[in-house]
Amino acid sequence: MTLIESLGLKALYAFDPETAHGLAIRALKMGLTPKTTPPTSDRLRTHVAGLDLPNPVGLAAGFDKNAEVCDALGNSGFGFIEVGAATPRPQPGNPRPRLFRLTLDQASINRFGFNNQGMQAIGHRLAARRGSGIVGLNLGANKDSSDRAADFATVLRHCGPHLDFATVNVSSPNTEKLRDLQGKEALSALLSGVLAANAEFDRPIPIFLKIAPDLDLGEIQDIADVARTTGISGIIATNTTLSRDGLKSAHRDQAGGLAGQPLFDKSTRVLAHLSQMLGGDIPIIGVGGVGSAQQAYDKIRAGASAVQLYTALVYGGLSLIGDIAKGLDDLLARDGFANVADAVGTDRDRWL
Q1: Coil, helix or strand for 51?
Q2: Please, where are the H alpha helices in 13-147?
Q3: Which residue from 4, 82, 58 is spatially nearest to 340, judged by alpha carbons?
Q4: Percentage helix, strand, coil, to 5, in the chain?
Q5: What are phi and psi of 82, to 5 degrees?
Q6: I need a labelling partner for 273 at 20 to 30 A (CA). Which of 7, 63, 228, 263 fits?
Q7: Which residues are marked as active site?
Q8: Does residue 149 sit in helix, strand or coil?
Q9: pLDDT at position 73 over 80
Q10: Is the predicted pLDDT of residue 186 greater than 90, yes or no?
Q11: Domains in the chain: how many in total?
Q12: CB 219: neighbour CB atoms within 10 A?
């Protein structure tokens, strides 16, 4: 991290977390952040669910909720980015405060509740983006919708022509009863509707499913079975957790989803079990607590074909992206892997 970046992060810590986040988005809009091409090499380039990634380090959904800075983020070193979540209609989300830093834990808790400007505004920005980077959209449902399952397909139909991939998010803990849609029958019906909408496009895109970390082995097996029967392109494991085990920070008891370092082990175990159940047939993107090259490497060796991060940027800045990608390249070379794909799942048993 450069001195300027370190000073910038300290300045942001003077503001409440949601205000600081808004300032970071504004800085990206104004071009005040460093620009860099995604680090890449023969080892880092990888192919995931039809997507050719320059490196396997992606941005998780939630940072750029309204697709305001896709091009700027594409120039920050990420191999791919995911924006949103987007719902059919705009919604304000839950009352503030709804985002909390847990500095002692290198973590955060949020209870945003899918606050976003709606698919019309988000779709317009996605259509106008100029960069060539890989961009996906996290699909959500309106809190007051009479048919939440249908909302996901509605957003996809509107925004899909401007995307490289889309993610069905039924794992946010901040919309009441949303996680109920992870049940086997409900999830199968929901995904069938989304995949039918995707099939209407001249160029169908990869469809991912984002799951919660708070699942038992039976529920993980149900997810694996549904993934196989519906034919989705991949799974993102995992979203934030409701667990509060071992936290030290003052805001540890706030309601919402916990992200960051405390999530790493829990999410990686879910990833490994899912990888074992799928037998490598469906790719998994690992997310939850990635804050270093070693942690990205651990996710890959546990069964992930690529990784995503978000909370670590709060503590490590945008330069962390390049550090992780380059460090991952070094780790792959150290252990004799020719590429990311060769390393996927090679240390899975450690997490089972």
Answers
A1: strand
A2: 17-29, 70-74, 118-128
A3: 58
A4: 45, 15, 40
A5: -125, 125
A6: 63
A7: 172
A8: helix
A9: yes
A10: no
A11: 1
A12: 16
Give the structural domain span for 67: 3-351
Confidence of residue 64 (pLDDT cuts 50, 70, 90): very high
- Cβ contact 30:257 at 8 Å: no
Which pair of tokens denotes residue 49?
């669910």
Amino acid at 330: D
227 neighbors 235 (Cβ within 8 angstroms): yes
pLDDT given for residue 288 in this prediction: 98
- Please give the pLDDT value at position 176: 66
Residue 293's CATH number: 3.20.20.70
Please count the residues of the chain. 352
Measured distance CA(352)–CA(344) in Å, rounded: 15
Q: Would you put residue 242 in left (φ > 0), alpha (ψ -120 to 50) or beta? A: alpha
> What does the pLDDT look like over 303-347, one tens digit per residue?
999 999 999 999 999 999 999 999 999 999 999 999 999 999 999
Cα(109)–Cα(111) distance, integer angstroms: 7
Smallest Cα–Cα separation from 151: which of 81, 96, 100, 90?
90
At position 144, the amino acid (one-letter code) is D
- Residue 223 is predicted with a pLDDT of 93
Q: What are the tokens at 136?
A: 């996906």
- What value does the mean pLDDT of the chain take? 95
Q: If you average pLDDT over residues 41-59, what whole number do you get?
A: 98
Nearest to 332 by CA among 307, 283, 285, 296: 296
Q: Is the peptide bond before 85 cis (omega within 30 degrees of 0)?
A: yes
